[in-house]
Amino acid sequence: MGLGDKISNKAEELAGKAKEAAGDVTDNERLEAEGKAEQLGAKAKQAGENVKDAGRNLADGVKDAFDGR
After folding, report:
1. N or C: which end of the chain has fewer CB within 10 A?
2. What crossing angle do the helices spanning 3-25 and 29-67 adopt, rounded to 10°?
3. What global pTM score does this model have?
4. DSSP H helices in 1-69
5. How far apart are CA 44 and CA 69, in angstroms?
6. CB under 8 Å to 29, separation ≥6 — which residues?
7. Number of domains in the chain
8. Residue 9, exposed/middle/buried by CB under 10 A (0-12, 13-18, 19+)?
9. Tens-place pLDDT, residues 5-62
10. CB < 8 Å & 24+ apart, contacts of 41-49
């Protein structure tokens, strides 16, 4: 995963936390729920990027193992 993706995902997660906190302070359940949803979306994107990275690392390891023969 690129640095830009990490920054984007973290920014989205932090924006969600801020929105959730604002909803909590103002007793706005809709805003609070939107914030939680944004956080979950950012975490899901991060997890997907981690899976892609793991797949790339596995493929590189397999390739290296066969190249080393």
Report:
1. C
2. 160
3. 0.76
4. 3-25, 29-67
5. 38
6. 23
7. 1
8. buried
9. 889 999 999 999 999 999 999 999 999 999 999 999 999 999 999 999 899 888 888 8
10. 41/12, 41/16, 42/9, 42/10, 42/12, 42/13, 42/16, 43/9, 43/13, 45/5, 45/9, 45/12, 46/6, 46/9, 46/13, 49/1, 49/5, 49/6, 49/9
Q: Which residue type is seen at 5?
A: D
Residue-number span of the structural domain to which 22 is assigned: 3-67
Q: How many residues does the chain have?
A: 69
Question: From CA 31, how far away is CA 16, in angstroms rounded?
Answer: 10
Enter the tokens of residue 11: 């920014």
**Model pLDDT, residue 2:** 80
